[in-house]
Structure formats: C-alpha cells, structure tokens
TrEMBL record:
Molecular-function GO terms, alphabetical: hydrolase activity; metal ion binding
Pfam families for this protein: M20_dimer, Peptidase_M20
InterPro entries found in the cross-reference section: ArgE/DapE_CS, Bact_exopeptidase_dim_dom, Peptidase_M20, Peptidase_M20_dimer, Peptidase_M20A
Top-level taxon in the UniProt lineage: Bacteria
Keywords per UniProt: Cobalt, Hydrolase, Metal-binding, Signal, Zinc
Protein name (record): M20/M25/M40 family metallo-hydrolase
Signal peptide: 1-21
Cofactor entry: Zn(2+)
PROSITE patterns in alphabetical order: ARGE_DAPE_CPG2_1
Residue intervals of the Peptidase M20 dimerisation domain: 214-332
Length: 433
C-alpha cells in the first residue's frame, strides 16, 4: 500500500538529499568513516581523559603525548617530542605530514594539558548516553580526538596523502611556560610556515546554534603595588602623612573602572590586600596582609588581568593604565607591572573567508550556517601566537559545558559533526589554489 508523507516532511527530505548530493564521493566516504569510527573515537577520548595531565603534572602530559603519538604515526605523520625544560613545562608534540608539493600548508593546533592537576579529585571519564563527563573531556582532549577522527577519515578517503599538515599539540596551553619566546617558539615558527591555522579547541554554541569563531581576545596579567607613609591614623591626609597606600590603590582602581571601558575590552581586579604589611605569594594567588584600623597603611597590592581584541587596543589600554597610575595622591607612590600574556587574534578578512568556506561545507552537509561568535564570549588561546602571520579559525573541537570546573561535560554527538566538518574543510583547503 502506498503511504503519503506529510507535506512538511517532503521539503526536509529533499533538502537532505540535495545537501548530500553536494558532497563528492570522497567527502561522503569521510562522513561515513567518522560515523563508523565513532565508538573508537569515544574510547580514545576516555583513555586520554583517564590519564591526568594537569599542566604541572609533567609526567602526565608526556604520557598523554605517548598515547596520541602512534595515532599520528599510523597515518604517516613524522612525530617529534620537544621538551620544554627551560620553560619549566613538559613539552610539545609536533607531527608533520608531507603531501603534494606546492599544496596549501595547514597548521592544526590543540593541547595535551588540562587545568586539573594530579591532586584534583576530578580524575576519571564517565559516559552517560551522548554525554561524556571528565577532566579535559572538552578542553582539549575532545579537540584532540576530533582532530584525529578527521585525519583518519581523510586517510580512508585518500585525501590525506596529498595534504601538507603540521600539528602542534602544546603541553602548557592552560598555563604557558615562561618566557613565551621559548615556550611558544615552535608554534610561532609553524605559523610562519603555514597558509591556514585551525584551532581544535571547543565549538561555541549559543542558543542551540553552532557558532563560528574568527577572533580571540588577548589576556595579560598585571600587578599594582601602592605605598604610603605609615603612622597614627589621626594624621592621615595631613601634609606630612598624605593619603596612605590604600586610598591610592582605591583611586587607581576607581579610575580604571571609569576611564578604561571601550568596546571589546574587559579588565578585572582578581585579588587585593593592604595594610601595614601586604605580601603577594610567589604563586600570585594569595596576599598576606596585616594592619590596624588606627594605622595609616604603608602598602597595598592588587592583581588582575585585561583582555583586548587587537595589538593596537592592547597598546592603548596599557598606556591609559600607566597614565592613571602616575597621578599619585599626596604622600604616595605606585608601581604597575605587566606580565607576559597571550596576544589577541583580531578578526580579519582572511579569517572571515575561512568561515565562509566552512559555511559552504555546512550547507553541503545539511547543517545550519554558523554566524560569527562575539569575541567577548571566548577566552585566549594558542592560535593567537600565530594570528599575526596566518589566517585562522577557532573552535573545531567538540561542544562542551562546564569547562575548567568539575562539571566539564562534552556533547559526544558533536565529535562526529565537528570531525566531518574538519575533514572536508582540510581536504578542500589542501587542493585550493
């Protein structure tokens, strides 16, 4: 008996068929491989997550590198481990695939470490249907397995053999070793060799919609120390004693809040303390302060960060901050010190063109168009170190929630969606003129 489909279903079926027809036979093969190897991908994710690799667990980071090394070697990559002893970090895994001479050179970026150190109670992977819960399940072990799933799909379809690909998996993305001239030297050099950079950190989803990321803001830490003349509080504001260290600190912080705001800038005071004594611990996360209500405070310390969208904005904000700090209250002085930070990845025409290429693939896969993500909704990352030299896209890893918390959970279905997108994008870029 002939069955009639509801009128609303027919357009959906035709749209799916039309989208599938837009894929080449090799691209259909890649999509099929990703689906067929889904359980293998999830199994590898569990294996990686179950091995702690907090940034300062140097042995753990190396063990994760040892786990993924054979995955790349089986695909024809030459793999090298670059120790980072000088930067007091574990090191980086660099995998290189030589393809067709003259083809576009692709740089794939991810990281091996997590924010959860060896003493964290959050250690193991748990699967509940299409959700995976565990440290680094999304950030960024999920991104690493998406990368590998995409490369395996390319290998099965025959598109990997001609592709020129360099992979840099850093071991300290969550807390980069210093100096950056050492800890990011290999990544920066790879960026100068590349034509395109693809960042396999997590996919951003807003309102149920996958978003395209073409920018990441910088992050830079600062430490402010103010000093004043100490003595009995009855003499505060006098010509001989002045305003004290805490009022000078308050003046500066209030001026930051009033005078710094501009589009795409955020700044934060994360830690503050003052009194007769105030000592910032070596880890930068604790201040031991002591004083009394009837003593003019001699010292105050604050620590914070700021985030910008372009090098020009960073320079402008630093200049404003220094100018504010320099206008001292009577009897006080202040010192503002900036630490090494992550540079910004500004939105560019080249980055937008890459997102347009990805949206062509979305249309061919029958997926919704990915709008640009507001850069205010994304933190800093390793791709920013190469952004001045090469066009790039961010967020080719899976969708997850609760990153950097014990609630970190990855959407396992997004592993497939992202691996298909990445495999087709890399294949098309590799043969592009």
């Amino acid at each position: 008996m002939r069955r009639w489909l509801p009128a609303l279903v027919l357009p959906l079926l035709f749209a799916t068929a039309s989208a599938d027809a837009a894929l080449s036979p090799q691209e259909k093969s890649m999509a099929a491989t990703v689906d067929a190897e889904y359980e293998r991908t999830v199994s590898l994710l569990q294996k990686l997550v179950d091995q702690n690799s907090g940034t300062m667990n140097l042995a753990g980071v190396r063990k994760v590198a040892d786990m993924v090394r054979p995955e790349f070697e089986q695909l024809g990559f030459r793999v090298e481990w670059k120790p980072m002893d000088r930067a007091q970090r574990a090191g980086h895994l660099i995998a290189t695939h030589a393809g067709k001479r003259g083809g576009k050179r692709l740089l794939l970026i991810g990281h091996l470490d997590t924010v959860f150190e060896a003493d964290s109670p959050f250690q193991k992977f748990e699967r509940n249907g299409n959700r995976g819960h565990g440290p680094g399940a999304g950030d960024d072990k999920g991104g690493v397995v998406v990368m590998l799933a995409a490369l395996r799909a390319m290998h099965a379809a025959g598109t990997l053999k001609d592709a020129n690909i360099e992979v840099v998996l850093t071991g300290d993305e969550e807390d980069a070793g210093s100096p950056h001239a050492v800890s990011r030297a290999d990544l920066i050099a790879a960026g100068k060799r590349a034509d395109v950079a693809l960042d396999f950190e997590g996919l951003s989803v807003e309102g149920g919609q996958d978003m395209g990321s073409i920018a990441r803001r910088s992050v830079g830490d600062w430490t402010l120390t103010t000093r004043g003349k100490s003595g009995h509080s009855s003499r505060i504001f006098s010509e001989s004693f002045g305003d004290g260290a805490v009022f000078e600190m308050a003046r500066i912080i209030a001026a930051f809040r009033k005078e710094l705001p501009e589009p795409n800038l955020t700044f934060n005071v994360g830690l503050i303390g003052g009194g007769q004594a105030a000592d910032l611990a070596a880890d930068g996360s604790h201040i031991a302060a002591a004083g009394k209500s009837n003593i003019v405070p001699a010292v105050a310390v604050a620590k914070g960060d700021f985030r910008t969208l372009s090098p020009e904005q960073s320079e402008r904000v630093v200049g404003k901050m220094k100018q504010i700090v320099a206008a001292h209250l009577p009897g006080t002085e202040a010192e503002l010190v900036f630490e090494e930070g992550y540079p910004p990845m500004a939105p560019t025409a080249g980055n937008r063109a890459l997102l347009a290429r990805l949206n062509e693939i979305n249309a061919d896969l029958g997926l919704a168009k990915m709008p640009e993500l507001d850069p205010l909704l994304r933190g800093a990352g390793d791709i920013s170190f190469v952004a001045a030299d090469v066009d790039g896209l961010v967020g080719l890893g899976p969708s997850s929630s609760g990153d950097h918390t014990p609630n970190e959970t990855v959407d396992l279905d997004s592993l497939r969606r992202q691996a298909k997108r990445a495999a087709i994008l890399m294949s098309r870029l590799s043969v592009a003129k």
